[in-house]
Amino acid sequence: MALGARLKNSDFHTWVILGDGELQEGQVWEAAFVAPRYKLNNLTAIVDANDLPQFGWPDSSGHTRSVPIDDPAAKFRAFGWNVIEVDGHDHAALLTTWKQVRAFTDGPTCVIAKTVKGKGVSFMEGNYLWHAQVPTQDDLDKAGLELADPKES
Ligand SMILES: Cc1ncc(C[n+]2csc(CCOP(=O)(O)OP(=O)(O)O)c2C)c(N)n1
Ligand SMILES: [Mg+2]
After folding, report:
1. What SS3 state is found at 149?
2. Which of 23, 35, 52, 88 makes an SS bond possible with 108, Cβ 3.0 to 4.6 Å?
């Protein structure tokens, strides 16, 4: 998309949201390799870095829910990306980050947003099952209460 925009002289910006488990897919790294080569400053990747994969490669003990990728920031830097690391739950910090992204014109930027899966809902936090699990009405009611008043949780 970003390369196409460049070729067509179009000025839209391409934003890509990536799961950290998704970074185990090889095609991500083909794109990551080529974007700095073309200095695609119209491309921003945002990694939802929650240290949890939907499913993933087993570690040496056979556990498939281990951290999906070590130090994604270093890897994107090594591929030539501008990298910004930020607390993915801090709205003010994110707004500052988007400004930094637009101000950087030398190439693509990767934002590593550190997050907690299910943040703010006690029975969802850190539990990979909520990637795809359908909440019951009871779950929704409880989650809504906790999100409405975090002190109650
Ligand atoms: C081969 C393949 N490509 C793309 C998808 C779409 N997809 C579903 S989940 C996911 C990644 C989500 O990130 P991850 O960190 O694994 O899970 P999360 O932390 O969001 O639960 C992607 C790319 C898919 N299921 N399979
Ligand atoms: Mg994840």
Report:
1. coil
2. 35
Q: Give the model confidence (pLDDT) of 56-78 as tens digits.
A: 777 788 887 888 899 999 999 99
Average pLDDT over residues 129-133: 90
**Residue to substitute in 54, 55, 115, 128 for testing ligand 1 pocket (most ligand atoms within 8 angstroms of CB):** 54
Structural domains of the chain in order of their starting residue, each with its CATH number = 2-115 (3.40.50.970), 121-153 (no CATH)
Atom of ligand 1 nearest to the CA of 68: 15
Identify the three-state secondary structure at position 146: helix
The mean of the pLDDT values for the chain is: 94
Q: Which ligand has an atom closest to residue 57 CA?
A: 1
